[in-house]
Specification:
Jelly Rolls; Immunoglobulin-like; 19 strands; six-stranded antiparallel β-sheet
């Protein structure tokens, strides 16, 4: 039987006071697990990749292409960084004043906040926006226009996307929540049956969501590591 160690609230708060990141890296010329590729062009169903050294990345050459992040622990502020390795001049013309539209979503996919990067503001390197809203759990990034480098409109080599969550998955409060493991089940005390219990990795990715039945949820598929259990408004840190 795996052993679970319950950490006191002040320890958990200290551990999650710093920022955590979700990182989407396209240098492997594939879509990272958990991320969703978006396109509205039926003739271009699969992502194309540049392979030249120094310009690796997801090729965005149509408006409407982009990425949707995995679900992460809810946050009220996130910073999104698009790292671009190359702007490739082409013969396209500008349709939109904004090259990128970045949107914060809640668990129901409702839009909580939107930020844009203007077509003349896009640069090689890091392009950053900050989104604020209540219970942000996903971020969508879409190329809504062609960047302009001052001479021509361009396609984009997107090297990576980083989502920084300044407060981790939120403040940890274990005053009312008590948990322990028994027979591969997480026993949760202080929360009513029927409450949705969510389990997140230390980086804020949700790996489990179950309703509490007879004071427990099953942990059969979780590997050893550090997790945060969230039930209602209560959170606590656990180590499997």
């Amino acid at each position: 039987m795996r052993k679970i160690t319950f950490l006191m609230a002040f320890v958990a708060c200290a551990m999650f006071a710093n920022a955590t990141d979700l990182f989407c890296d396209f240098s492997g010329k594939s879509i990272p697990s958990g991320w969703t590729y978006i396109t509205n062009n039926p003739t271009y169903p699969d992502p194309g990749f540049y392979t030249a050294s120094g310009t690796e990345g997801l090729k965005l050459n149509f408006e409407g292409q982009g990425m949707l992040s995995p679900t992460f622990g809810s946050a009220n502020t996130v910073t999104v960084i698009l790292n671009i390795t190359a702007l490739n001049e082409n013969t396209k013309t500008g349709v939109s004043d904004d090259a990128f539209t970045i949107t914060a979503l809640n668990a129901s996919d409702a839009v909580l906040a939107t930020q844009t990067i203007g077509k003349t503001a896009v640069q090689t390197g890091d392009n950053s926006v900050t989104l604020s809203g209540t219970d942000i759990v996903k971020v969508q990034m879409i190329m809504t226009g062609y960047p302009n480098n001052g001479t021509k409109y361009c396609n984009v080599n997107l090297r990576s996307i980083t989502i920084t969550i300044p407060s981790g998955i939120g403040n940890i409060n274990a005053d009312k929540l008590n948990v322990f493991v028994a027979n591969k089940a997480l026993m949760v005390q202080g929360i009513a049956n029927g409450t949705m219990v969510e389990v997140y990795t230390a980086t804020g990715a949700r790996v489990l969501a179950q309703e509490l039945v007879n004071g427990q949820i099953q942990l059969d598929n979780l590997s050893k590591g550090i997790y945060v259990v969230r039930a209602g408004n209560e959170k606590c840190k656990i180590v499997l």
